[in-house]
Amino acid sequence: MKKNLGQIYSLFFSALAGLIFGLGLVLAGMANPAKVLAFLDLAGLWNPSLAIVMGSAICIGLVAFSIAKKHTRSLLGLPMNLPTSRIIDQRLVLGGLAFGVGWGLSGICPAPAFVLLGFGSIKGAIFLGFMLIGMGIYELIESYRNLEKSKTSAAITNAKKSES
Question: Is the pTM of this model over 0.85?
Fold first, then answer.
């Protein structure tokens, strides 16, 4: 019973956080592709208002992560799974570039796409569809890479065994 109650609390607070986050996106104008594109248009009629939103989010994130790093469990008693890697590799750079190009072309990124979908926007639905396709392609590439790694590892192991 206690485990189920913890899951219910977790789902409730996750939904509440998502609702607050989505409301913040709408109020800040981050769910409006035209406003986002105006922010990204440095050579045209630049709208700097989203810089304040982003700066505020960075400040809140810095405080939240500095507090979270000191704990092994969340306030609900769940394990903290914070990223630990500090490696900047080709996959990270290419992923960031793909994100930036998609954001720059459409004025939409994943969280606002869900907000737009909630409002019944076809643009949000199309963006999410292509995002899911991209995620599927990533999974296929990763599966292939892992298969190749395991084949290489097995070949090395077999070669070492035959040498002995």
Answer: no
d(CA 124, CA 110): 9
Mean pLDDT of all residues in 61-84: 88
């939409």: which residue's tokens? 108
What does the chain come to in residues?
A: 164
Per the CB < 8 A criterion, the answer to whether 129 and 33 are in contact is: no
Angstrom CA distances, 64 to 9, 39, 74, 76, 136, stand at 20, 26, 12, 15, 31
Q: How does pLDDT run across 51-64, given as a tens digit for each residue? A: 888 899 899 999 99
In sequence order, the 6+-apart residues with CB closer than 8 A to the CB of 40 are: 103, 104, 107
Query: What is the chain's alpha carbon radius of gyration, rounded to the nearest angstrom?
Result: 21
For the chain, the distance separating the N- and C-terminal CA atoms, rounded to the nearest angstrom, is 56
22/9 Cα distance (integer angstroms) = 20
Q: CB-based contacts of 112: which residues, under 8 Å, 6+ apart?
A: 25, 30, 31, 33, 36, 124
Q: Averaged over 32-39, what is the pLDDT?
A: 87
The stretch 125-144 carries a mean pLDDT of: 91
